[in-house]
Amino acid sequence: MPVAPEHTVGELTEPQRNRHTIITFTGSFHGRTLAGISATGQDKVKKGFEPMVEGFKHVPFNDAPALLAAMNGDVAAVLVEPIQGESGVHCARANFLGILRDICDDYGALLMFDEVQCGLGRTGDWCGWRSIAPDVTPDAVSWAKGIAGGFPLGAIWVRDRPLTLNSGGTVSLADLFGPGTHGTTFGGTPLVCSGAIEVLRVIEEEGLLENARTLGAYAKEAINGLSSSLIAEVRGVGLMLGIQLVADFAARANTGSRPPSLWLVDRLHEAGMLTIPAGTHAIRWLPPLNVTREEVAQAVDILAAVLKKAV
């Protein structure tokens, strides 16, 4: 791989501050702010919000050659979800994340992980990427949602990595955000932060990481064990599962004008189980981290009954 001439692997240099492109991936979802919509690699999210914020380039997910072809001296960072949730729970391959790290190092770009959906215990690890590629270290990670158990809180972790200045000396990457450069009106509120500390304590003390690993594997095995002709694939890690429906689901289940995922979600709601769609042909299972084996078994039974009735 070519190496950017001003870059020494493992270090960052000040010229990289003048770069303006961030690469993200097709199928990604990065939020509902205008920049988050622009970063998202799904056209349906962008409709009605044009023009987009400039500077984002989308390449195919899990496609290292496509990323390498898109890299140049203007790329400041690569932003990726280790597990894409909104588009159907698609996991990054371990070697793909490792190659991302190598490419970013070669070009002097930052590697940033969006773990808003897959972080904070959802996969059975505090960091979702560690359930896939534990030896890969990103330069920044974003967290939200599960970090405060429903209270509005987001957080960012930035790596303590040296940045070499043109004027001489170094500064930590983690110190580039000075006071006032990144904040919100309600950021750091004591009430919400207190709630988040309690959430993290409960996850740790009640063994919910192990629960997510164990029951996620059990749920995946149980759904596959249904051998339903309407299920094409079960994907995911821990308690972040995607159930892919077969391509001809609409015709076989007579869903009418409703997309198969929405039609099935409606039927599951009627049967007493909450779940959400992901695209037209997948549903997401995101049970609470303290879900029990009996509750997972009950959910599988409900799914089986609904699918049986569908045909």
CATH superfamily of the largest domain: Type I PLP-dependent aspartate aminotransferase-like (Major domain)
- Main β-sheet: number of strands, strand sense, barrel status? 6 strands, mixed
Strand content: 15-25%
What structural category characterises the helix and strand content?
alpha/beta
List the helices and strands in order: EEHHEHEEEHEEEEEHHEEHHEEH
Number of helices: 9
What are the SSEs and their pairings?
Blueprint: E1 12-13, E2 21-25, H1 34-39, H2 43-46, E3 56-59, H3 64-70, E4 75-80, E5 83-84, E6 90-91, H4 94-107, E7 110-114, E8 140-143, E9 155-158, E10 162-164, E11 170-172, H5 190-205, H6 208-225, E12 231-237, E13 240-245, H7 249-253, H8 260-270, E14 276-277, E15 282-285, H9 293-310
Parallel strand pairs: 1-10, 2-3, 2-4, 4-7, 7-8
Antiparallel strand pairs: 5-6, 8-9, 10-11, 12-13, 13-15, 14-15
Helix pairs in contact: 6-9
